[in-house]
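Now for our target.
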Amino acid sequence: MSEPARTSLTAPFDAAKARQWWLREIQRGQRGLPWVKNPTGDPRAMQAGLREAAFPLDGLARTALLFPEHREELTTQVRVGADWLIKLQHPSGVFPFPIGPGLNPRDKVGKIVARAIQEHPEMVVNDWIPDDQTDGGLQFDNGLCGRALVSAWELTRDEKRSHWPVASKASPLSSTPEDAMARKSSSPPSKDTATSGLEGKVPCPNSSSARPR
């Protein structure tokens, strides 16, 4: 006995409609970008970590490469976002967590931050938490922010902002300062431009160099 013919339960994928939908979402989402809502980067006004900026920055940069007709407009936004993110990077190389979520906890993350601040008040430096002093959970933000900066650089290739890919490598992934410095010195841009303003960003959160100064 032969099997009955199988029928598709979904309509064929319409690439043109998906493209239009994606662009509408991109336009709508730009109104709520962290660097638009909070241009000064006030950590007390934030309700999420810097991953909140990393996600849209990465998406905007990738979208600009896929939609040439929107590249100029999106590139302008990517430059602003990447500069904003770099400005908030800690001298140790990490992307610190803002104190905001712990001031008025609204969710699980906020409650965790509030409890951590209560148990370890010394971890807060100028309203930022550069080292959570516990399980290294901040590394999630470091990875996302680093990836977003790489995407921004791949889009712009702006020599005036050649510190972006260097900053993306200044994340706490090495076990020793020597490993971190070796990784930093191997970055492709020239030393004069690539390391401008990044002196001292040794990415080793468990060393004294990563502690707030």
